[in-house]
Design brief:
Blueprint: H1 2-7, H2 11-32, E1 37-43, E2 46-51, H3 55-64, E3 70-71, E4 76-79, H4 87-106
Antiparallel strand pairs: 1-2, 2-4, 3-4
Length: 107
Amino acid sequence: AVLDHVLADGFLEGVTATGVYLGGRLQDLVARYPDTFVEARGQGLLWGLKCRVDPWQIAAQLRGAGLLVAPATDGIIRLAPPLIVANNQIDAAAAILASLAASQAAT
């Protein structure tokens, strides 16, 4: 059943478009909050945000706000949403990231 869904016409093209949308939102966050985020890098639906602060601290704060990310080495937090993520869910995640970045700038 899952394979039928993944192989359905247009599904993978939609995943590609959603990945581009996610990358754009993350790039916007880097531009708006350069004191918190250094760069966004990734492809498809697997992205990383390089942070100026401890990624473990950021991940804990995001988890408290309802967004699960994975801290990694070199100051990176990884974002890996499911293939069926919708743009409005990406917008909600970007809003949580923006709120965190704004609170970092305020301190």
